[in-house]
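The authors assume throughout that readers already know how a fold can be written as discrete tokens. A single example would do more here than another paragraph of explanation. An entry of this sort, consisting of the sequence and the corresponding backbone structure tokens, reads as follows:
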Amino acid sequence: MPMLQLGIEGERTLLKALLEYEELRCRIDEIDPSYLSEESRKIFEVISNNREMDSTRLCVQIYNKIGNQKFYDGDFITEVGANYLIDDYKELVGKNGLQRLCLEISKKLKKGDMKVDEAMEKFYAFQKESSSAFNYISIKEANELQKKAHTDIWNNRGNRLHWPFKFFEDILNGLRGKELVVVAGETGTGKTAFMLNAAALWASFGKTVGYISLEIDVVDLKDRMHQKDFAVNLSAESEKLDGQERERLLREIDKTGEQRLFFCDSGVRSVHSIIAGIKLMHHIHRFDVVFIDYLQLMTCPGKQTKDMEIGEIMGSLKALAMEIRVPIIVGSQLNREVGKNDKGIPRLSNLRESGTIEHSADVVILLYRPILYDRNASPDEYQAIVAKQRSGRTGTLYMHFDMKRQIMQGVVPGERAYAR
């Protein structure tokens, strides 16, 4: 197997660091020795097999193995620099492995020996294996990251994603990336409308948005987004539009042409395939936020119960958000027990498979339409109940929901808008 761009000098510097810094040897298993030169592989094998041995004795072991001391000719490097060197080596190995995997898969796809879903599973498995190693950050590095984060906020350079609905940040914190947000509601409460409104607003603000729909195709999704401008149901009755309305619809569609909003309505439900697809698209487009509609339609083969399946899916989505540093917003159903609550107001316990969902989520928003339980309530009254926020408050946010036109808006906080 050919050497990588690290070169023989880079290899010697890396091996010298492994000799000098015993604490660094905890990362030995992250290094694939098959890409090292023959001599470096021999040295690496000695270090790997004697991780607890002090540097002096290790040097003797290596000299006895290869018969010269050139292995100690590498440049001096600090422990922090050595960690970065390991990261660089892993990236080179990953690129090389990805190239070989792409070539292998493309040949099989051309011959018809592999399906697209199988190819996506292969890419996901490769990504998972490549990123599974434990990486650590020293206190000095953590301090610098912490100071930079706060300094950026103070200088209005923070990269937080602010909620697109008015007054939401009276309770909700802006999203910093890495959060897993669950938006849950009963059938008919408008889970998809809530997520589509948020996605459309963020896209109109110049954000890059991914939207994965597991049951609604892209044409229907787009129709819902443009429903705000028309009284006629665009998905079912567009033939009723007159000539001017048809021209207006086409103009409104064209206005969104430059937005960075990407849909997936392929129907693929395997969590592994979905995650692989998100990673690939994020690599290309650099998402600011990703939506998945919705949780209970996703599958994770091999799990014996739905609770175990949902637990694995939620854990995988949280890991994905942490890895790509992008907030993931996933829709979820509530169980039928919500109808037994006072006025049908949802609680965390009403989440289907509530234990696993609540545990993994950073934020849980429960959607509530009073009209479903109170005939005297306004049909436009809507509530977004922040039932969990890992680093913030909980409380209720009030909204206006024009269901016919699929428009959601935050309303001015009044006496009913409170935080507890």
Remarks:
- Residues 415-420 have pLDDT under 50 and may be disordered.
- The first strand starts at residue 180 and ends at 185.
- The domain at 168-419 is CATH 3.40.50.300 (Rossmann fold).
